[in-house]
Amino acid sequence: MLISTDNSGLQQAANAINRGELVAFPTDTFFALGADGFNSAAVENVFVTKGRNPGTPVPLLVSGTEMAEILVKEFPEPLKLLADEFWPGALTVVLPASDRVPEVVTARTGTVGIRVPGHDVARELIELAGVPVTGTSCNLTGQDPINEAVVVDQVFGSQVPVVVDSPCGDSSAPSTVISFENKKVVVLREGAISAESLRNIVGDIVVS
Fold first, then answer.
1. I need a surface site. Which of 80, 139, 150, 156 has the fewest CB within 10 A?
2. 184 contact partners, CB below 8 Å, separation of at least 6
């Protein structure tokens, strides 16, 4: 069901997330398949709906640093500096997960990837839900990500009961993924934010 982005529409979507249902919503790049990141059954349903085997870590989208800190055992200062500079935006931070993060999210890696999306509607939805939301792409496994609400509704139907009808952002580059190892910032994937931009904030970094 397509819903609008007015206050009542987004509240409806947030309520669905809190009930353990799936919600498709726009991000900077494409539609994400959102579930309550604290709800193991809801996250497992993301895999089922995508036709994807469990065992792959699932990124979580958060409304800000305060929510991010709940999800990790520690948030090293260099990564906080980078988050302050590039959030909201295309920076994913991978850190040791706190006990609140289900194993289905971490895929037993012990870590979780976190990002504040650079899309106003996505952030507002997460704030209304009050929980981190899965940020995996809303598509069937092996098919291209979807960037139109009407196509999401056509492809998934009742499997995704709520689809937020709003345009995605115009970014095509993936997020840059970083972690913190041996007291250094490590670039796991260079994406929309360059390694040089990171160096300008924290100095020495390692590009894996």
1. 150
2. 204, 205, 206
